[in-house]
Design brief:
The protein is mainly α and 164 residues long. It has six helices and no strands.
Length: 164
Amino acid sequence: MILLTGVGVFLAWAMLVALEDIRHRRIPNSLVIGGFVSAFVLAGHNPFGISVNQALIGALVGFLGLFPFFVLRVMGAADVKVFAVLGAWCGPYALLWLWIAASLLAFAHAGTLVFATRTPVSALWQRRSPTMQIAGFRASPYAAFLVIPAALWCLYRIATGGMQ
């Protein structure tokens, strides 16, 4: 029963993060803290079978893994914090694959924006104003791209009986 609670909490958290990022391009700190606390409270009984030690290491690896991108101003702080929370939920070993999947989603999103806005490729290297902008947003909802593969992995584990 507690495993089912962990699945529900994780999927609800992932859905809220994705919705907030897609709609507002901002993720409230309360949502990040709630996900972080839930990951540790449910450690050992979460859908990914992560212990408290693995959750701590995963959170640290997640934070340190994306922090350089934040320093270079390529990524927002919320993206880094969400990746740290995903590290706490999924463990350190899943983070590379989640990052790769999220980056592929972001690449597809950017390609779609270039096509939809009819942006010339030469404009991508100019430093004037935002190159692509739709509905007032110019950034990709990267936190949403991070949680989508994690949620799909969770659902895959449920469907294949991979949870114990």
